[in-house]
Design brief:
It catalyses: 2-C-methyl-D-erythritol 4-phosphate + CTP + H(+) = 4-CDP-2-C-methyl-D-erythritol + diphosphate. It holds the Pfam family IspD. Its EC number is 2.7.7.60. InterPro entries: IspD (IPR001228), IspD/TarI (IPR034683), IspD/TarI_cytidylyltransf_bact (IPR050088), ISPD_synthase_CS (IPR018294), Nucleotide-diphossugar_trans (IPR029044). This protein is α/β, with parallel strands linked by helices. Helix content is 34%, strand content 24%. The chain has helices at residues 36-45, 62-71, 87-95, 115-128, 170-183, 190-195, 216-232; strands at residues 7-13, 30-31, 34-35, 50-57, 77-82, 102-107, 130-136, 143-144, 150-152, 160-169, 202-205. Strands 5-4-1-6-10-7-11 form a seven-stranded mixed sheet, with helices on both faces. The longest helix is centred in the C-terminal third of the chain and has 17 residues, at 216-232. The structure holds cytidine-5'-triphosphate (CTP) and ligand LQXTBERG.
Length: 234
């Protein structure tokens, strides 16, 4: 197996950011004067492993995203295309534009992913078939009924919070999406679609800083993180 083969990346950025509650979609908010989506794309642009990037965005955002890509010199972003109503549909549309054997899917609102973790996730997928970045949960997790009563306390040692990127063989992920579509199944991540085909997906330990910017308090943390990164690099 050629573990050095380069990969394509689908960055999904077509969500509305309803939980953030801002007029502007959260992925286009500025952090240190730069749109969050550009911070995310820059991580992958700088990685030699990455051959091509497809950015999936809102139909009305294609022009401004394309302008930013030119402005920030993101040469690996080969296509900017419109997404769908659900994340799953946006991912599938992105997959249709990828030309590499291996693909990683990443949320546009996870700008703090560490390149070394991206590399580890991709290498693991190329070794064992499929892999996702994740962290061990820190809290005790309860399963709670609709009426608010605790039903179960799963053993925390087996619980992980799943992040992106998630890495797969392109043909397998496409097949998983097509099967899910045919069955009317919607998952909250890509791994779920592959898991339901009986494929083993490996978990690669990432970092707690790989947050998905989702709600307003995440922005304060994101600003802090960027400042901290800037200080480290000076
Ligand atoms: N139809 C959709 C929905 C989501 N996403 C993307 O999937 C990633 C993870 O989704 P999430 O954080 O849930 O984003 P939103 O759907 O925008 O947020 P919300 O659920 O609060 O509306 C984001 O980068 C988002 O832009 C997408 O490309 N297409
Ligand atoms: C894919 C994901 O980021 C893994 O944590 C997450 O599941 C996206 O979920 P959301 O429902 O779009 O927030």
């Amino acid at each position: 197996m050629d573990t050095e083969s380069r990969v394509g990346v689908v960055v999904v950025s077509a969500g509305r950011g309803t939980r953030m509650g801002t007029r502007e979609s959260k992925q286009y908010l500025l952090l240190q004067n730069k749109p969050i989506i550009i911070h995310t794309l820059e991580v992958f642009e700088r990685m030699p492993l990455v051959e091509e990037i497809v950015l999936v965005t809102g139909a009305d955002d294609i022009d401004r995203c394309s302008a930013w890509i030119a402005e920030y010199g993101l040469r690996k972003v080969l296509k900017v295309i419109p997404g769908g109503r659900e994340r799953q549909e946006s991912v599938y549309k992105g997959l249709m534009e990828i030309g590499t054997e291996w693909v990683m899917v990443h949320d546009g609102v996870r700008p703090f992913v560490e390149p070394e973790h991206v590399l580890a996730c991709c290498r693991q997928a190329q070794l064992s078939g499929a892999a996702v970045l994740a962290v061990k949960v820190k809290d005790t997790i309860k399963q709670v009924s609709e009426s608010g009563i605790i039903e179960a306390t799963p053993d925390r040692r087996s619980l992980w919070a799943i992040h992106t990127p998630q890495a797969f063989r392109l043909s397998e992920l496409k097949k998983a999406h097509e099967l899910a579509e045919a069955d009317g199944f919607t998952g909250t991540d890509d791994s779920m679609l592959v898991e339901r085909m009986g494929v083993s997906v490996a978990v690669v330990e990432g970092s707690y800083t790989n947050i998905k910017i989702t709600t307003p308090e995440d922005l304060a943390y994101a600003s802090f993180m960027l400042q901290h990164k800037g200080e480290k690099n000076t």
